[in-house]
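Lab notebook: predicted structure, single chain.

Context: the supervisor wants predicted structures on file for every construct in the current expression panel, including those that have not yet been purified. This is the next one on the list. No modifications to the sequence; it matches the entry in the shared construct table.
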Amino acid sequence: MKTINAKGELCPKPLIMTKKALEEIQENESLKILIDNETSKINVVRYLEDNGMVVKCHQSGNVHEILVSKKGVVFEEVVEEYCPIPNNENENYVISFQNDKMGFGSDELGEILMKGFINTLPEATKLPNALIFLNSGINLTIKNSQVLESLKKLKDKGIEILVCGTCLDYFDNMDKLEVGIVSNMYDIIEKLTSADKVIYP
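Prediction complete. Output recorded below exactly as produced.
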């Protein structure tokens, strides 16, 4: 059985990897696909089922294991048909959270505003490509944060969430991280400099 590891990859990459693997294996040969975001899992399963293949899915934690036996002809159109680019006009933006409060003045009001901002974000028409959490902004991603459910929704939509590892260590919160991946300054700089726009709430 051939296995492809698409964990950490965002749509359309898992779909492209699946199509390539199907082209490489023989008829009736089995394929296992590992994916760790809901959007990519849905798109891959739909693509396989549209090809007339029987799909079995198993979830362990946030990892989806998709098992399929190759049947029939592999469709040519993948990205455009099954995984449209979420951000139109080819513009991508990143949100960098450098604080767990929004604005200056009242800390209580700042917490209310930040909670409202993040809890509304999953419903936005144009979603960011990534969320970056630095300094006290990491408090939004750890245990007991009031915005964890919304951040997990964004992650399931394919939004990359990077959390500063140095900051987690500094505040002794490494073992409390609930959502996102521990990141380093190099990856954070790459994400910021490759964005068309960076928002600092």
